[in-house]
Structures are given as structure tokens and as C-alpha cells.
């Protein structure tokens, strides 16, 4: 089987814990992918909201160096860099050159709080700032996907109003199924579909089920089913949030993927499952010049 995962935080752990991208104690490791015919993984550099401008930028620099030393790219494995929280730009548009130089594929504009670009999920009424508008334009100009996971509802619509290319939600589920601010409304999901964007299903138990202690793969199927019912066959993907979130009891890490894949095949059929687990994301990024 093939897997294209739009989001994990394994790189952040490797950077701050001085560990390895092949640490078997993590949800994801290189060796754990041995069963995959093809594996494409976006490794996010998470920038916590609590960091100041200088520290945010430095964390990106440090993590990108770790990634350069440890990444693997061959016929079977492709590892790409992403950013979770554009506060690492430190309010300076010129810092987008850091993203270009490190071949970053996608950037979430915010994390949960407000930053120089606008409001995150915990700041629902804060939209896109003038700086944020400039950043969106420059990301698009440089073939970097604009990721609206973690954005406030207002920021989402502000981005949609100025975006000229399809946006992405790397790790967000359905708010209709689990009513939390980090999930997407049906309207938001349909807008992303209409633009030609994609949405990665998040495995975090708090986004799968309001009673997170009861979250399971069954909930993942429920989210996928609803999003497919409203038109997501060519737009739904995987954004696991491995190594960045608490998983349901029946998901232990990358080694659980074959079982999840089988459950999806049984429920939705092989063709749709292949689209969700690889094809939709691969097609989306194949339209970027630097992929």
C-alpha cells in the first residue's frame, strides 16, 4: 500500500529532544515504514505560540538543520518539510526566503492563538492582518501551499477571499461530526473542494470524538463518511498528527496504518481508499512546480 501523510510532529520531537527521525518509540520512524510500497510524509516544524519572534525563527532554523541531516529521499520514501505556525516569520516578509531555501511545501498561517498574521482557532473573531495578506500572496507566488488548519473561522474566510490557488487543511476533521473549533464546517470543506484543495483526516482523539476517551478508528470512519457524502472523494486525504497528538487506544502509530487501510477498504471500497491514503494528496502537490 501507499501512504501520503500531510502532517506529523516527529521532527519537532527530534529537534527539542535531540532524538532521531528513526526513533522507534515515536509514532513515526523510518524503519516503521518498511511495509509501505510508497511513503510521502510532510514533517511539520511546530512553532509554539509561547515563543517570541527570535526564538520562533531560531526553532525553524534548528529543526530544518536536523531535517537536512536525517531526511531520506529515494524511490520508496519522500520526506518534505512543512511549517505549523507562520510566527516563525517573526513579522518580516523577507523571512519567507527561509521557507524557499528549505523547500517547505506547506505553511499553517497560525497555531491556536493570534499571531502577526491573524487569529488561530482560539481567537475566532480575529481575521487576516495586512501582514497575513502579504504572506498569503508570497506563499502562493513561491508555490508553497497555504494551510488553514488551526485558523479562526474569520481568518479562513479572509484567506479564501484573496487566495488565487487551492488551499489545504493538512490535519482537520468534520465539525458536523465533532463540534470543536479546530474542525471544519461543511461549508468550509465544500469551499476547499471547489477550489481544488485537500483536507487531511486528523487522528487526534479530541477531534474524532467529543468524549475523547471513547475515540476510535470507528470515529475516523464516521468523519470520512460524512466528508465523502458532501463531495470529498477527490479532496479527502490523511493528516495523522502523529507525534503531535494523543491517539485513540486502537491507533499506536505508523504500524497501525495497514489495519486502518483495511477498515477503509471494507467500508468505502479499494478505489476511494487509495484516493484518501495517497492519490488525492499526491495529485494536489504534483501541481506545484517544486514537488
Structural key phrases:
alpha/beta, globular, five-stranded parallel sheet, 291 residues
Produce the secondary structure layout.
Blueprint: E1 2-8, H1 10-16, E2 38-46, H2 53-70, E3 77-84, H3 96-101, E4 104-108, H4 130-141, E5 145-147, H5 153-162, E6 168-169, H6 186-195, E7 198-201, H7 205-208, H8 217-229, E8 236-238, H9 257-268, H10 270-286
Parallel strand pairs: 1-2, 2-3, 3-4, 4-5, 6-7, 7-8
Q: Would you mind describing this structure in some detail?
A:
By secondary structure, the chain is α/β, with parallel strands linked by helices. The protein has a single domain (about 1-285), classed as Metal-dependent hydrolases (TIM Barrel, Alpha-Beta Barrel), CATH 3.20.20.140. It has helices at about 10-15, 55-70, 95-100, 130-140, 155-160, 185-195, 205-210, 215-230, 255-270, 270-285; strands at about 1-10, 40-45, 75-85, 105-110, 145, 170, 200, 235-240. The chain is globular and about 50 Å long. The mean pLDDT is about 95.
A few lines on this structure:
The protein is an alpha/beta fold and 291 residues long. The chain has ten helices and eight strands. It has one domain (2-286): Alpha-Beta Barrel (TIM Barrel), CATH 3.20.20.140.
Amino acid at each position: 500500500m501507499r501512504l501520503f501523510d500531510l502532517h506529523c510532529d516527529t521532527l519537532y520531537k527530534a529537534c527539542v529532544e535531540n532524538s532521531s527521525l528513526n526513533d522507534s518509540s515515536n509514532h513515526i520512524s523510518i524503519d516503521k515504514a518498511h511495509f509501505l510500497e510508497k511513503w510521502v510524509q510532510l514533517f511539520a516544524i511546530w512553532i509554539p505560540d509561547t515563543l517570541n519572534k527570535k526564538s520562533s525563527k531560531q526553532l525553524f532554523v534548528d529543526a530544518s538543520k536536523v531535517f537536512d541531516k536525517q531526511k531520506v529521499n529515494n524511490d520508496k520514501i519522500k520526506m518534505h518539510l512543512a511549517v505549523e505556525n507562520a510566527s516563525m516569520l517573526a513579522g518580516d516578509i523577507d523571512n519567507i526566503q527561509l521557507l524557499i531555501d528549505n523547500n517547505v511545501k506547506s505553511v499553517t498561517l497560525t497555531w491556536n492563538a493570534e499571531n502577526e498574521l491573524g487569529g488561530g482557532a482560539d481567537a475566532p473573531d480575529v481575521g487576516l492582518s495586512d501582514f497575513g495578506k502579504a504572506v498569503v500572496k508570497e506563499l502562493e507566488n513561491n508555490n508553497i501551499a497555504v494551510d488553514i488548519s488551526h485558523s479562526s473561522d474569520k481568518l479562513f474566510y479572509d484567506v479564501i477571499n484573496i487566495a488565487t490557488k487551492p488551499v489545504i487543511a493538512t490535519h482537520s476533521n468534520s465539525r458536523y461530526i465533532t463540534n470543536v473549533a479546530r474542525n471544519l464546517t461543511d461549508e468550509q470543506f465544500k469551499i476547499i473542494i471547489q477550489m481544488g484543495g485537500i483536507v487531511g483526516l486528523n487522528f487526534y482523539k479530541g477531534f474524532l470524538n467529543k468524549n475523547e476517551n471513547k475515540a476510535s478508528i470507528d470515529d475516523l470512519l464516521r468523519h470520512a463518511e460524512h466528508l465523502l457524502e458532501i463531495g470529498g472523494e477527490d479532496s479527502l486525504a490523511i493528516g495523522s498528527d502523529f507525534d503531535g497528538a494523543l491517539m485513540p487506544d486502537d491507533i499506536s502509530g505508523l504500524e497501525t496504518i495497514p489495519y486502518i487501510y483495511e477498515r477503509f477498504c471494507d467500508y468505502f471500497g479499494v478505489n476511494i481508499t487509495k484516493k484518501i491514503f495517497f492519490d488525492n494528496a499526491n495529485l494536489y502537490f504534483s501541481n506545484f512546480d517544486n514537488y
